[in-house]
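Students often ask why we bother predicting the structure of a whole assembly rather than each chain alone. The short answer is interfaces. A chain on its own may look different once its partners are present, and contacts between molecules only exist in the joint model. In this exercise we take two input lines together and write out one structure for the complete complex. Read the inputs first and try to guess which parts will touch.
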Amino acid sequence: MITLDFVLHQGPFTLELRERLEGGITALFGPSGAGKTTTLDAIAGLRRPVAGRIALGEHVVFDASRAIDLPPHLRHVGYVAQDPALFPHMNVRRNVLYGRRSGQKLELDVVARMLEVGELLERRVPDLSGGERQRVALARALMSAPDVLLLDEPLAAVDVERRRRILPYLLRVRDELGVPVIYVSHDRAEVDQLADRVIVLDQGRAVLGGPPPGSAS
Amino acid sequence: MTEVWSVTALTVVMAALATAVTLVPGLLLAWVLTRGRFRGRLLLETFVSLPLVLPPVATGLILLMLLAPRGALGGLLASLGIEIVFTWKAVVIAMAVMGLPLFVRTARAGFEQVDPRYERAASTLGARPFRVFLTVTLPLARPSLAGAAVLCFARAIGEFGATMMIAGSIPGSTRTLAVAIYSFAETGRDVEAGQLVMVSAVIAFGALALANWITGRSGVHA
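Now the answer. The structure tokens for the assembled complex follow.
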């Protein structure tokens, strides 16, 4: 269970959320400027709410009333943005292993097989295609054994064909690893295909929530 | 000619030591001034840059007052049996103090060029701030940092005013290139002075060309 109950100001913009998310894939859907990326940033500790509480299961990462505001490195989130920000001075293997915590059970082999990045491990980052970069970024985030995976339009810069090929990997993450995913997307078809539930944001507020419209058909 | 080479060797070794001494405080200051958001940042930045605009002789006098056996710090060091002024250690300190602002400014320009997305990605992957600095910021800023070190070395090679004040001109111990040129010219040894000017020009040109090449490749200029 992920608890998002907070108020965040960013200049004149206010984001106010009160949601409890079960496991599976939750899509944040809405127009530009609705607060989707800001929501992910608040969960990751990259932006600070002024009030409220954010908890990933039992792990409280922000609670204004108890003066809890964990820095990003203590929050145990995996964050993959539209630009995957792979470290250009490391090869793929070192990128993927960067966030690996000591004593964690998830093996590199398992993640590499699931996302089909085994062949890429010794490659340099500049030599990867857009789709390969996103898979590597996903593998890197998963290897940090996150309590939640935050995906901010990870496929926006990837062409339609590659996007179609990557989507099943995201479903595998949900089905095989059971990591809850919060997925920001502008693409209605993508949301229909992936999400277990959708939260529609508009001007900083959730205006609609429930299963994706396409799932009924 | 032997004296010319011994002065050159001594200066190069002192400048290399001064650059090494500058590295850790210079990197930390550059990082703090780039990423830090704290009260007094502007004051710290101004203080670090002060030797760039203060007359070197004035900087030397301040160092002398601090490090002389009766000075604030010098007294403490003297009680531990450490003598600074008019020794090779004073040369290194004078060179390091005068080179530090140049190092910090160039290194800072390098850190500013590191895209914060990489640092954010590293922190969400569980890396503590110091690990982010060591494994992401530092390697990505490496070309500029190398340029900063070369510039600091070049500045140290040419250091004169502060060195004269706290180290003097003791042959074989504190007489560096710039100090030796002055001494030779003053005592009518124009040939040796001219030779040292040539050596200084070659080293300075080489170091500056190297620094410009390195920082130019990384797109950073001090």
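Check your guess against this: Residues 11 and 30 of chain A are 20 Å apart (CA to CA).
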